[in-house]
Amino acid sequence: MATDFTLSEGANALSPQDMLTLPRPGAPLPNDIGDLAIVPISTYSFQDRKSHKSLSVIALGDGNTYDIPLPDGGDAFWLDSRTIAHIVTKDETQSLYTIPISTSPLSSNPSSHVGSFPITTASAFRYSPSAQRLVFSAYVYSDGLVETVKEQDTAYENRGNSGLVYDETFERQWDTWVGPKSKALIGVSLAKVGGQWVLGKTYVNVLKGTGLSSPVEPFGETDDYDISQTHVIFTAKDPQLPKAVHTRQNIYLVAHDGEGLRQLTSGVQGATHSPVFSPSGDKVAWLELALDGHESDRAKVVIYDLKENVRFTITEDWDRSPDSIIFSPSSTLIYATTGDHARIKVFGLAVPPTPLSNTTLTTQPTALTSSGSISGFTPIPGGRATFALSSLTSPNEVYELSGLDGAERDLLAGRKVDVKETTVTRLTSFSSAGLQGKYLSPGKDFWFKGTAEGQDTHGYVITPPGFERGVNGKWPAVLLIHGGPESAWFDQWSTRWNPNVFASQGYVVVAINPTGSTSFGQKFTDGINKNWGGRPIQDLLMGWKYILQEYPEIDQDRTVAAGASYGGYAINWIQGNPELGFGFKALVCHDGVFDTTYNGYATDELFFFNHEWGGRPWDPAAFEASRKYSPAYTVAKWSTPQLTIHSSKDYRLPESDGIAVFHALQQLGVPSRLLIFPDENHWVINAGNSLKWHHEVFRWFDQFIGLS
Fold this sequence. Notes:
The strands form nine sheets. The chain has an eight-stranded mixed β-sheet, sandwiched between helices. Helix 9 runs antiparallel to helix 10. It is α+β, with helices and mostly antiparallel strands.
């Protein structure tokens, strides 16, 4: 093992430390009149080993910014066009402050304390000025009361034992053992009285007594609910079904006082996401997956007319799967943020007239953007919208899209939209200083004939600093294999698997989107079912050989591969099938599956295995398919040096898989190493741990292929 290895940190190289210390902006949140937006930013410092939080106030139009330090962190959102609400948790108390904003010049005035909450877990805030109502998520006990949480917390913590008893799944999820509390949506009055903001004293849990929990864990936030002047719309797991075995989430509507709960979905669908009100208040919309148990089924846009009590799908024949939706200010359009050919774009689609009864329709969406990956798309007055955009060469920056009024007229008239009439303007440069002088490859798309019928398979090539064509056999190369498996390599920034960080260490980076990847049509995504070690691996091999032929500059004696989750499974499968002929000299497996069949018992979300393999792990067909493609039964053929990485709080793919891989390699005498993070989950989040991760990965590769 090389002991003198150091990471490349040249002036033009994006080192892991460079990446980890760049500002991490969130999505912009514009005010109601559309002249200002706020962006939360987190910046890590290795000097004090802390993440420093701030809030950037942006003047839309000219892009001027004003930064507000937030030493205690906390959520921030608009109360009116010139007042920001800031939530601070400190000394076991969670409080609401207001920060007044001035525009001449752009600045903030001293904050004022408004009031404190009876709990410390309030998050995912939404405020309705017309209703003078603040709604948020918080953990409550079975009585549903926020007022009793602290007393019950004390009793629970002092119960005299640490035992956890379960009679049903989930017993744990993602990285947390499930306790006696669940998430609820809480409402309270918040109004400006006599020039002062006043937080009410009466808290209403609109889910109290329903058996429902929202936002849906582990990742649900404000995208799981929306509020109007009178109601809350939200998605929640079906309370009648075992949560670990089913993905069904229903859409519910309830008044702010908790009365009149009604279900808007059919009750036979799969998951639902992104419920939103139209500004006109007469319609709601959401994303709906048809199959219960299939978390990566195609998401369709569903509208419910609240006046006519009619539910209708409007993207029945659109072969793409949106991530989020939002109505236009006129309520006549829906904007859908959607993966398409390894980009995340915004599509516009007209809201059709409400049919006479529940039905399915097809509205042809039109792409309004073409590059990068968009998040937080929010329409604002004046035919404009704000959003965050990242790419392979940049973290999130804030952009404004103007000219949407013309696009809206074309869409409503059924005409082809001329996107040249819209204008995209970049407003911020959060990362420009940190990236100055760095060589960042924008990535080159390539397409090749894979295993899919009727369509080619996609990938990216990211080249290192100094790369030039014509110097054959010079450059080492790494194949990166994405997880999911129903996911993709997008034109998108990442702080965990960043292709340009790998390229800056001197590698030609190959990132292929094989069968099972998203954004290329549902048939392509579903092609991985019961076939993990089949078509996707063949696609990776065919794409890899295509690149080796197209790029003779790659030294074929110095190639390596790395992957996480499904990508880690693929590494273990490649390890056990040397006859495939990839020719890698070293491998890295992060949180990968070792025994595919056993994973059907050990994972937290049992529905995932049951769908992927066509049944429960003991059902004959699922058992046969999962065992056929289980790396555990290929161990006798393992011979390639491998670094295995796993984390102890990974309940999606428990650490026993990684330990088993390491034990097998050790007993075989294959050069191997194990890196364990006791405090991380399926992802390595802590900056210090991430730096260690990168150091070990690149040191491992260097030991077997060298960069000299």
